[in-house]
Automatic annotation (TrEMBL):
A Pfam match: DUF998
Domain of life, source organism: Bacteria
Keyword Magnesium attached: no
Stated name of the protein: DUF998 domain-containing protein
Keywords: Membrane, Transmembrane, Transmembrane helix
Organism from which the protein derives: Dehalogenimonas formicexedens
UniProt lineage: Bacteria, Bacillati, Chloroflexota, Dehalococcoidia, Dehalococcoidales
Amino acid sequence: MTRQWLHDTISSSLPVICGLAAATVVICDAIGVSLNPGYNPLKESISDLVFYPFGWLEQIGMAAAGLTQALFAGFILSSRSARINHWVRISGFIFAAMSIGFGVITLFKTDPGLGIESLGGGVHVTTVIAMAALFPVNCYLLSRAIGGNPDSATILHFSYVMAAIGGLIALQLLPLNPIRFIGISERLLAGVNLAWIVFAGSHLPHLVDTPLEPPARPAK
């Protein structure tokens, strides 16, 4: 009873919360950049905003994004699909891990610049890299698990785009690369992630809760 209540409650509020969370991330970043003319959004990472005035806006955005991951985890793990499909269940656990990851990168600040100079900075960077890799992988797993639904193809395409942009970010971090547009690369990846969050917020309830229909028999 409690599990079903949790599932139904999240399902009804997921579209609105995901839309508000995405808007919060964009607005907080835009305000943070506009209030700090010395900050270069092209070459400085999103995490570097924390070292500027009103840096707490960046943390609010991270908290909003983490909330959506926690809701996805709760919704998926409380669904009937998670009880009968282990891939759906694994996807739910990955979303839960990512919600914890957002808490970690909020708690542990990055080091200034692109180098790692402290334990906290190392934890932050490692967690960001792990999350950047996990998100498209999880989208892929989930799209395969619910592959009988037409909208699953859109989720799969999003995962490909995120993987490509994630690779671009990795190239910006190479020591031999003299031009590092890490800021714009991160924002491109964040934009795709937010688009997926908004899409999933309105479509996941249908995709996860609708049982797959058996293939129709050919007419004799």
